[in-house]
Amino acid sequence: MTSHPAQERAALKDSTLRFLGKLQITFPLEQRIAQADPAIRKAYGRVLAQWISGRVPAPDFLLPAELHALCHLDAIVPVSGGLGCYPFSADNRDFAVELSRRPMNAMCAIDALAMSRLTGLASTIKALCAICQAQVRCEVRSDGSLDHDVPQHIRVLWRHRAHPVGPCSDNLCRDLVFLCPECAAPPGSDCLQLPQATAVANAFFGFQRRLIPPASA
Ligand SMILES: [Zn+2]
Q1: Which of 48, 62, 79, 83 would suit a FRET pair with 148, their CA atoms being 20 to 30 Å apart?
Q2: How far is the CA of 76 from the centre of ligand 1 (A)?
Q3: pTM for the full model?
Q4: Distance of CA 200 to the CA centre of its chain
């Protein structure tokens, strides 16, 4: 949990860096939070801390002004079950993540891979191949690295499709999916092997660990 973001980036290869860069341009979450009002950033940290401690923040967890500001930044996703907060989803989106036997849901494949590093808990991810619907399963260690016996050739696919405007959870997230070893990536898509995708996930969400209030970190 102590490695520096610059070290994380240095460990990424070119294709992986390109994927990460495109992701950060398409959904500039880190930048939006960095530029937010300090009180809003703090409220965001409190929402994250709730998720990390295993509690789903209730719809009334935030003050109305905080809720409005964080929704405007597309940093949280309120649904009837609570306040989703990338990478954590408050509803079932078919990216199931078991964090130390605690069932959670991720917003997308990249989000699922980010949860262990963020929480410090080992995880098992169960999802479906986006093309053939075969079950895809992998284990992530508590430090965010992949388990040695991770099934080879599972990949993360970024399908590039036209989207209506709306929150990331309804567009980009629907396109960041797992691919089983047998299925080919469609032409024009970006595709990463699981270790590279995991590195992207940990780098994309790395800023969040610095926002968690100390008592909950
Ligand atoms: Zn498949």
Answers
A1: 48
A2: 31
A3: 0.90
A4: 10
